[in-house]
Amino acid sequence: MNKKVTKAVFPVAGLGTRFLPATKAVAKEMLPIVDKPLMQYAVEEAMAAGIDTMIFITGRSKNAIMDHYDKAYEMEVELEARGKDELLKVLRSILPSHISCVFIRQPEALGLGHAVYCARPVVGDEPFAVILPDDLVEDGTRGCMAQMTALYAEKQCSILAVERVDPSQTGSYGIVKTGEATGSYSPIDLIVEKPKPEVAPSNLAVIGRYILNPAIFDKLKHTGRGAGGEIQLTDGIADLMKDEQVLAFEFEGTRYDCGAKLGFLVANVELGLLHPGLKDEFAAYLKALAVSGKI
Ligand code: UTP
Question: 259: CA distance to ligand 1 center in Å?
Answer without folding.
Answer: 9
